[in-house]
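User: Run a structure prediction on this.
Assistant: Running it now.
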Amino acid sequence: MASPLEESSNPKNKPRVNLTSGSIAVSLFTLAWPVVLSNLLQTVYNLADTYWVGGLGADAVAAISVGFPVVFLFISLGGGLVIAGTTLVAQNVGAGRDNAADYTTSQTLGFVGIVSLCLAILGFFFSESVVRLMGPEPAVIEVAVVYLKIWFAGVPFVFGFFVFQALMRGSGNTVSPMRIMVASTLLNIILDPFLIYGWGPFPAMGVPGAAVATVFSRGLATIFGMAILFKGTMGLKAKIADLWPRWETIRSILSIGGPAAIEQSSRAIGMTAMTAVVAAYGTPALAAFGIGNRVISVVFMPSMGFAESTTAMVGQNLGAGLPDRAERATWIGAGSMMGILTALGALIYLAAEHVGGIFLPADDVQALLHTATYLRIAAFSFGFIGVMNVVNGAFRGAGKTAVAMTFSIITLIGLRVPLSYSLAGFTSLGTHGLWWGVFLSNVIGGILATAWFRRGGWKQRLIEDEPVPGG
């Protein structure tokens, strides 16, 4: 029996990873760790910005806290579409349909590229309206708007690398995106202080300097990623002739990616709504919310990595006609995340008082207290959200993105926002109620997603054994 990490044999001798045989646990962990590292580095972009901007004070941190959910919303709209590319590439690779995998790669690149241009224009011109809608204090609004306009100008570059990552993961290659991400993140960290504080020959740009550093760093990453895809040396080959979207393929991408985009957007919409709820309690609470979310996003990296690995595992195994193996992979991933994230939650609980001090000056006492309280209350719900992330990853690999979308909406909007609003505003908990709403939504969402997964209605593959254009 072939090792699950051996290069799969195919007519073009492409270095794809076979996830349909061998040890499930070894396949999952080996596929997951580069994804975890890549996602961790993705978060480091935000943490680095928060760290360097933190020296400017709570208003500056609040500005990027307001900007972050808006950025995440637009990333999610396009990023959800590339999940369709991951799913279709994985199922075609599992079924040995190499031409179909390459064709899907080209079509996804072309379509998401057009979408990213549209979103960049929308985001640039509506930044100020969205920021004002969230209701931050006047000192925060102007800085947040400039930050967002710069970031939106670079949206096509940002999306380009996300597409590259998603497509390569569908083919089982998680190492190439990780290597590029390492270089891009290091460049961003180096550029941040130079552009924010005006080190050396650079002007002091303040908060907007963080956006410039991010756009430049991700732009270079996208250039390298596109070079790999068009050369075809790493498992997938994009063709210029296949870039212009064809309706038959776009319909498949939309049927899978549409719900995935809504799911990803629900995270941002929920975060935006929560930001508006928290903003009513003042800048210290808002700064704590932004810092806490960035810390929690680091803790969640293992589950996000396992979720994306599960998407590839489920996709390839359903494509190969192995639904039971796909199910076992999901349970292994979910169980692992419950244990690992619960342990990490315990560590965060113990260190909660010290975390805020990494990002805020010692005299921002209220913001530091809010940060510690938020982390302590949310800590023991981490395992549940980890389970839901993995299970939703399985739904995506099966193409059941509408199911994953439903659970994300229920958890992040249907439960979290009203619970936090009600507990903070209509009980004696006060600001503590904001954080208890986060805790309860994580627990309930994880339980509901797991119960639905056990029903087993997701075990059919999407692809059909028919030629593709150019195949």
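Residues 24-453 form one domain.
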